[in-house]
Amino acid sequence: MKTQAWGWLAVAVLAAGLNANYHDGGMQWAHRVVDQIEHNSSAVMALATGHADQFLTEARFLTTRSEVASCRFSEAIARAQSRIDESEANFDRFRAMSEREEAQLVRLEANRARIEARMAQVRIPAIAFSPVVVRVPKIDICPRIRVSVPRPPHVQMPRMPEIHIASASAGPV
Known about the structure:
Elements: H1 2-23, H2 28-49, H3 52-66, H4 72-121
Helix pairs in contact: 2-3, 3-4
């Protein structure tokens, strides 16, 4: 069991080190892989949900990344264009999400209005509660109880002899 615990501890320390290195900007290959996976899954989700514009945006982004640019300027322009397309797709997703949330808010408001209408029809009768009076009898005399506890027998133990050890050095033992 100890060996297994040490193994898990080593794995945790290794994972923490790799995580710190990844978030500090190291391991560029991992960043590229995660970025590629993110865009691939976004394209698949856009295709699955029927959002053709998002799918085209993701497809353009993926093909732009895979093309080899002849010069750095055209590569920078392509990167900027793909980021603009990506931000537009994110904005479209946000707008769709806002519309869904707004529709949900309208449904909640309708439910609230329906519940308030039902509550207006409910009549709760007024009830007057009378206080409860509890009478406790007064006790003037406390009865006494006598208990006799026998004493334990006295046992005499012989005294222990004291032992003295003489040491040759003056320091502590």
